[in-house]
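User: Hi! I'm working on a homework problem where we have to compare a predicted structure to a textbook description. Could you give me the structure for the chain below?
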Amino acid sequence: MQINMDHPIPTAPAATLSPAKTRADGCPGHASNEFEALTLTAASLLSPAGGEGSVFKDCCTLWSQVFAKPGRTPGTVAQSTRQDLQQQSEAQEEEWHVILKKKKGTAGSHGPGDGGEPPRRAVAAARSFLRTVRDGSGVQRVVLGLAHVASDPAERGKGLGVAVVKLAARRVDDSGGRIGVAL
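Assistant: Happy to help. Predicted structure tokens:
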């Protein structure tokens, strides 16, 4: 299934695990679609429910697979990510942008599904955060940083990586000029 990228990607409000707003055009978030898009704040990820939730674990598993190296496991990625989130300043305003794939025969809500597995899993994810940089004329500017952009190798070719980058880029559009982009 290809994702239509001609339309903005709908997203659930930050810090929520509820399904994204529905659309009838086949973008992630449509109730009958196999994919769901959501954005989570760092604060929600560090909460007992968020930090130990299946989205956090799924993303750490995805990143350990996509960015594989000796000794990197889902557990080591989760541990270092949790430490990283705890050490960040509030000014960084980190958010995670995640595309979930609904498992066949599930309603799409989090919780135990058949066989004790969650009814959806993260198949693409990215982290975004704010950074203050000095431009060529010496002016300090707040820009969006983007990291850990990944998609499940088995799901590639469906536009999922583009979708999480677009979710992150919405922060620039929604900031009213407060956040810029630097390459």
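For your comparison, note the following. The longest strand covers residues 120-134. Strands lie at 35-41, 95-102, 120-134, 140-151. Good luck with the assignment!
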